[in-house]
Request: fold
Amino acid sequence: MSYFENCSLCPRYCRVNRYITIGECGVDAHIRYANALLYKGEEPPISGKRGTGAVFFSGCPLHCVYCQNFAFSQMAHGKTIDLAQLIDIYLALQRKGAWTLELVTATQYAPYIVASVEQARNEGLILPVVWNTSGYETAETLDMLKATVDIYLTDLISLDEDFCEHYIGAKHYPEIAKKAIKHMYEQKGNLQIDGEGRAKKGLIVRMLVLPENVNHIEKSLRFLSEEVSRFLSISVMDQYTPVYKAGEFPELSRKITVGEYGRALATVEEFGFENGWRQTHRLSEMPATKKVIQ
Reply:
């Protein structure tokens, strides 16, 4: 595919020939994935009771020092496969009872995703397709995905330039992410759920709460409230674990506290969001996971 000869699939625009070398994403032009399984840990409309059919792709355009999936995202661990094998993975997950098909960190393979999902649908794939992304996307790649992806499940890491420069290696992330999320919302709108509770179409924005609020979550919430929609589905995550290179940064070298998570939830409510979820599997002092934004 010519996309990989002068690669501009992500906002790095590294323009390398990925048939010859690796890009800023850490991978070449061959499809590489780390795992494929039924995963029950996502938001309820994505996982259902059976689990989403999650395919974890190797590589990532961002370089987060605390990457929670560092083994395959930052270190590119995984197995190289061809398009036919990828299609077989999708269909096998559907046969196992997957609630949705979730493609995790797949931007660097976007043309393959479009081709594989189209062919898989011709062969019987009927699952809603979820694009699990960091929010670091170009409008061109999102347009490429428009007919392929049903639900965008995007992180909004931070809208603080200093944070993005020091901890994720992309000072320009705030402007990129704001444009990308607006584009996702224009494509898919607010989350739509069918009678079984399964996500059919729409946008979910995730925010990971970090120690000492170093990513300034209030900046992200203000943007979403004022420039996107207060009816967005917001997922506030408590699962931060100091892995990968986080130990090199004292402010990131511990898990969050109950108080820090509670303050983040309060800030979500202050901005008037009505739809979403909180996680509680890491903080034993809080009640079980439930619909949060009342």
User: Anything to note?
Assistant: Confidence is low (pLDDT under 50) at residues 284-294. DSSP finds nine helices and eleven strands in the chain.
